[in-house]
# Entry
Amino acid sequence: MIEADGLTKYYGPFIAIENISFRIPRGEVVAFLGPNGAGKSTTMKILTGYLAPTAGSARIAGHDMSTDRLAGATRLGYLPENGPLYPDMTPRSLLEFFADARGLKGRYREERIDAVVRQCELGSVIGKAIGKLSKGYRQRVGMAQVLLHEPDVLILDEPTSGLDPNQIREVRETIRRLGEEKTILLSTHILQEVEALADRVILVAEGRLRFDGTPAELRRDGAGLDDRFHELTKAASA
# Structure
């Protein structure tokens, strides 16, 4: 459902990412780990078609995101870090706006809005201005609009960044429920997300792939996730 094949992105002499390859099958939740500046967001922007790679290819559900982006976008929901929301709108009006933008019509449009309101537990704030909501609720609003068109694949960039512990718990519960039926790539530098959510871990550092395996494999020889993260990212910068 998600394929990265030799993804490379240069900005002049600067290497953002180089030769990153992985494949994620249907129904897997993958934590995308790395320190700040490792290349996670660049990789995700290429996967979503927002950026063009210098080399390599990205596919969503078989659609090349450089040449067939619109078809790929129908299968994809993307939640960027600090995704844009309109503070003067309510969750209801925002969802109606995005439903119209995605071409949802008639009864199906209303059913999908009602479904994501329930799924993301927005009923108690549905008529409040988004600018007056907590960051946790704003993340839920962002998640709801990502889910409107029933995508098979979700790409989530730091969805718990800046949240308090209770809000983190709520967002994780939402992601866990979604992971029962969606393919999810979850960018994070918070190692607890791995323990809480992930079937698999992909780790990048200095723009290159350093690890691809299960959380148990990452904790090899009894080492904790903190130690292994430090080992892999320190080795990359040495």
